[in-house]
Design a protein that fits this description.
CATH topology of the largest domain: Nucleotidyltransferase, domain 5
CATH class of the largest domain: Alpha Beta
Largest sheet: 8 strands, mixed
Shape: flat
Distance between the termini: 48 Å
Radius of gyration: 34 Å
Number of strands: 20
CATH superfamily of the largest domain: UvrC, RNAse H endonuclease domain
Structural class: alpha+beta
Number of domains: 5
Helix content: 40-55%
Length: about 625
């Protein structure tokens, strides 16, 4: 807990007003964001003694301080909460894992000669949007470009037309070439209006005209043109049979069903998209994290996150369960779309049937992927809980930092720092250290140096080391643990430290913590996670050490040979792969290396013949890649 922040006294100061609260851990990282009609009542509820939910207790154990932002209305708090969740992605909030958006067709009306483009989102610039397209976007664009001579380039063309040379698209009839002044702005605008009418759903006049043109082509034996026109007619029919292209004024519905995995707390949401009375597509979305909120709270969180990311909101959203804060949710959706959006949970009728069908689909998909979800949960959150319970820690192990030392008889000593967050390796936080102050194979002193350097960087405010772990794992036993604890004590930091102990076969045996050794169930997920952490720590340290040792040895040996510089050293390595390979090469083989002359080849042979044990002295084998 922060020394400057006294939670009991701060709870007494909370106002009974609406707002958003942010929970922070000891590193000041935001781990939960919530809204409240009364901040005083809501924030206090986390610190009551009768809280039984594990995740809520886990959250409370990590709260070092909190802050709040007052708002004038609940709606403002509702909107602000969603924006802060999106920004900070707190660990304990429900997070949408697979947010999808659907594209539009966009006409750039701000240009003298507008273009027809695809767009993933509705921008703020002056333009007309048609869609969104769950399916059929490519067909629609293909029809537009095959029928109307709209420009495809991004040239800046003045209102009176340009003076460029027409491109190939003009020669094949795909563009009216306003860039060359071959079509007036008025005529081009009429083409664009025709495209807009088609995209708005007025496709029957287009079909009638195309059918007349196809008959005319066929009558005049222009069969190739007739076939192209026929394909365009088929594409238009396919688009409007599979998906009605919707303008924003048309009434549409999204149907949402969901199923929850009670063990992991995750949920799978399944959606049907209804456009003009037809189901034109479906998608499923997985959420993770979150406390054990009610179904209504989970649904409300999903709706806010999903429609905040999409480019289109329907007139109506149908759910199996009424979401929490329904009135606020509808006001929020209005603030996003600028139009009224109703959220309904009918108990009978066709829409109720579709909502139940969506929920059955969600349950079926969750059942299909449920085994994987449960395996992932057991291997991560479940494993962390096993380790925490084994050694008797009070707080959850959300972030573990593990360290290992690697050297060759004390030479080229290095250390690795790897990070496991929520039970998974977080490679972006891995760090490497080259030991600077220790001579010889002194693991205890090396460990002490690394811990001191790492946490001094934290205390100095270094952004690359700005997080504190919930526990430190060190490869070793009592001696290494004591070295880490002494280094932390000198910096006035208190962090649990565990030694990863190995058996005589150099395999993971258990953990040394608090002066005692703990042996987890070898078939349990906790033991498997400890093994993964130990193996990854050793791998990362060894990888860095080999790289450092190889470069040092190559320089220390080959730099002593007259006539061998950086370029020849690199070419020798490319040709023979190792120092042993270079030593074993004959004069003729050395001479055949690009850029090698007879004098340099002779120097290399003379050097190794005078030092037959060079590799043994340097503790290097023929298989070491330099």
């Amino acid at each position: 807990m922060s020394e400057m922040f006294d939670i009991p006294s701060e709870l007494e100061k909370l106002p009974a007003r609406s707002g958003v609260y942010l929970m922070r851990d000891e590193t000041r990282r935001i781990i939960y964001v919530g809204k409240a009609k009364s901040l005083r009542n809501r924030v206090r509820s986390y610190f009551r003694e009768n809280v039984t939910d594990y995740k809520t207790r886990a959250l409370r154990a990590q709260i070092a301080e909190f802050e709040y932002i007052l708002t004038d209305t609940e709606l403002e708090a509702f909107i602000l909460e969603n924006n802060l969740i999106k920004k900070y992605k707190p660990k304990y909030n429900i997070l949408l894992k697979d947010s999808k958006t659907y594209p539009y067709i966009k006409i750039t009306t701000s240009e003298p000669f507008p273009r027809v483009l695809t767009a993933r989102r509705r921008g703020r610039e002056k333009a007309r949007y048609f869609g969104p397209f769950v399916t059929g976007l490519r067909d629609a664009m293909s029809v537009v470009r095959s029928i109307w001579p709209v420009r495809l380039c991004d040239l800046t063309i003045p209102p009176g037309g340009g003076s460029f040379r027409p491109c190939l698209n003009n020669h094949i009839g795909r563009c009216g070439a306003p860039c060359a002044g071959l079509i007036s702005a008025e005529d081009y605008r009429e083409v664009i209006e025709d495209v807009a009418r088609f995209l708005s759903g007025q496709y029957k006049p287009v079909l009638s005209r195309l059918e007349r043109e196809m008959a005319e082509h066929a009558e005049n034996m222009r069969f190739e043109q007739a076939a192209k026109t026929r394909d365009a007619i088929r594409a238009i029919n396919r688009i409007y049979q599979e998906q009605k292209i919707d303008d924003l004024t048309m009434n549409n519905r999204d149907i949402i069903g969901f199923a929850r995995d009670e063990e992991s707390g995750g949920a799978l949401f399944f959606m049907f998209f209804l456009r003009d009375g037809k189901i034109v597509g479906s998608e499923d979305f997985l959420t993770t994290g979150g406390l054990r909120e009610s179904d209504g709270a989970a649904l409300s969180a999903f709706i806010r996150q999903f429609y905040n990311e999409t480019t289109f909101l329907p007139k109506e959203i149908v759910t199996t369960t009424p979401p929490d804060d329904l009135e606020l949710l509808e006001k929020y959706l209005w603030s996003v779309s600028g139009a009224n959006v109703s959220v309904k949970s009918p108990s009978r009728g066709e829409h109720s049937r579709l909502a139940e069908l969506a929920s059955r689909n969600a349950a079926a998909r969750l059942s299909k992927f449920g085994a994987k979800i449960k395996r992932d949960f057991a291997a991560t959150q479940g494993a962390l809980e096993e380790i925490r319970a084994l050694i008797g820690l009070e707080r959850p192990l959300a972030r573990i930092e593990a360290y290992d030392i690697s050297n060759t008889s004390g030479a080229d000593s290095v250390a690795s720092m790897i990070v496991f967050a929520e039970g998974r390796p977080k490679q972006s936080d891995y760090r490497k250290f080259r030991i600077k102050t220790v001579s010889g194979p002194d693991d205890y002193a090396s460990v002490s140096e690394v811990i001191r350097r790492r946490f001094e960087r934290f205390l100095s405010g270094d952004d690359r080391f700005n997080l504190l772990p919930d526990a430190i794992f060190i490869d070793g036993g009592k001696g290494q643990v004591s070295a880490v604890l002494e280094a932390l004590s000198a910096l006035r930091l208190e962090i649990p430290v565990c030694g990863m102990v190995k058996d005589d076969a150099h395999r993971t045996r258990g953990l040394f913590y608090g002066g005692a050794e703990y042996s987890p169930n070898r078939r349990g997920e906790g033991f498997k996670l400890i093994t993964r952490i130990q193996d990854e720590t050793h791998r990362f340290a060894l990888e860095y050490h080999k790289k450092l040792r190889s470069g040092t040895m190559l320089r220390s040996v080959l730099d002593e040979i007259p006539g061998v510089g950086e370029t020849r050293r690199r070419r020798l390595l490319q040709a023979f792969g190792s120092l042993g390979g270079i030593k074993a090469a004959s004069f003729d083989q050395l001479r055949a290396v690009p850029g090698m002359n007879a004098s340099a080849a002779k120097s290399i042979r003379d050097y190794f013949e005078a030092r037959p044990n060079e590799l043994e002295e340097n503790k290097c084998t023929d298989t070491d890649k330099l």
